[in-house]
Amino acid sequence: MIVSRTKQLALGALGLAAALLTPPALAGDAAMLRIGDKLKITFFETMDIPNPGAGEKGAEAAAVTQAFYQRVDLSGEYPIEPGGTIAIPLFGSIQASGKTLEAVRTDLGAAFEKTFGRRGGLTVGVTQRAPVFVAGAVRSPGAFPYTGGMMVIQAVALAGGIEKDQASATHVVEVMRELERRAAIRDRLKNALARKAVLIERQGSGANPALGRLLALAADGEVTALLAGAGRVARLEADLAAKEDGLRRTTAEAAATEVDLLQKRHAAFVAQLNARGERLKTIEALYARQMVESERVADIRRDFIDMEARKREFEVGVMQAEFRQGAAKEATDQAGLRQKLSLEKEIAVLNGEIAAAEQSLTTSLNVVATYAVGQGDATQQYQIVRMGPTGAQVVSAEETDPLEPGDVVKVVTVRATGRSERIKAAAR
């Protein structure tokens, strides 16, 4: 088939469209692609359109005209995934990492032809490269966009430049943290000693070593404030315990009064029951001599039986009241023992806290922050961590060495051997 002028124009239009649709290739496109790169891929396909004017305009007119259109279902931006592939609809995973753009373009064309049974056009361009990472003795470590021809010194500049005296600053911070930690330990120790001193005074044990230790650790004004604070808490606890004791004593006294009252009522009722029993005997004797009727005897006997049942109820009530009295007395005794036990336990816990705090203070006194003081200026060394076929490789680098996408630049500060200084935390 003779190519018509229309077809030639269409081919030219295709080339122009491809040029317009293809993103500007970033510097370094000729280099191998890497994981993290992002590709813009555009697919085109031809379509034959019948030319109704063929045969009327001479032999040069073609029977069909070829039109070109973009496959929007396949075109788009595709990142190179951690496995080194790009995922194209209908094509599956296509290996891209470690290949050039031209090689990826060839593989995509072959996949298109295999899938659809015909050839298609496509363009491939890099829109984003894997970032460069900067770590170590820099002001703002992190990830930065890769640009073509980037050098080590440029990446360091993006990270804010070299961090000066980083080692010294780190040790100074550690010393300040140690001093703050030590001050917090001293505060806990003084509060524990004040609490223990108040509890010992509440016990009435006599000697109070906690107070002596507190006086040696803190100033007089601070000791007064600490004891006042601990005393307020102790007084509140003592008031609460006194109210609970008073309630228990009141309960015990009420139980004792109830027992006494029930016992008196029981004794009076027993006397009445005995009198009713004597009367019953008298009536029964008169009935034996046929001097009273049997109904009267039966009534008196029923009254006597009822009174005996009530007597047993009185006895049960007395027993229950005596049990409540005993329980109230036992609760009062146990409460006193629990208060003493709670006091002893709290003092034991405070002893543990005091011992731990004193041990921490002793350790803190021996903590020494050592930092190197160089005899000359510190120097920086650069290392590049680069992923290769066999894994990560670390190589020494200079400021002007070129970088590749995905490289990690590590800046190391090296100081000459010098003297050492030791900083000891003060006792106070």
User: Which range does the strand content fall in?
Assistant: 15-25%
Shape: elongated
CATH first level of the largest domain: which class?
Mainly Alpha
Q: Residue-averaged pLDDT, rounded? A: 78
Low-confidence spans: 1-30, 368-376, 418-428
Strand neighbour order, sheet with most strands: 8-7-12-10-11
Helix-strand pattern, N to C?
HEEEEEHEEEHHHHHEEEEE
Ends apart, CA distance between termini: 102 Å
Radius of gyration: 51 Å
What share of residues is helical?
A: 40-55%
Structural class: alpha+beta
How many alpha or pi helices? Answer: 7
CATH architecture of the largest domain: Orthogonal Bundle
Number of domains: 3
Give me the count of strands.
13
Q: What is the makeup of the main sheet?
A: 5 strands, mixed
Task: Give a structural overview.
The chain has 428 residues and is of the alpha+beta class. It folds into 3 domains: 5-129, 2-Layer Sandwich (wza like fold), CATH 3.30.1950.10; 133-164 and 378-424, Outer membrane lipoprotein wza fold like; 172-370, Helix Hairpins (Orthogonal Bundle). It contains 7 helices and 13 strands. It has helices spanning 5-21, 101-116, 152-158, 166-203, 209-217, 220-288, 294-365; strands at residues 38-50, 64-70, 76-79, 85-88, 92-95, 121-128, 132-136, 142-144, 368-373, 379-388, 391-397, 408-414, 419-424. It has a 5-stranded mixed sheet, with helices on one face. Strands 1, 2, 3 and 6 form a 4-stranded antiparallel sheet that branches. Strands 4-5 form a two-stranded antiparallel sheet. A hairpin with a 2-residue loop joins strand 10 and strand 11. Helix 4 runs antiparallel to helix 5 and helix 4 runs antiparallel to helix 7. It is elongated.
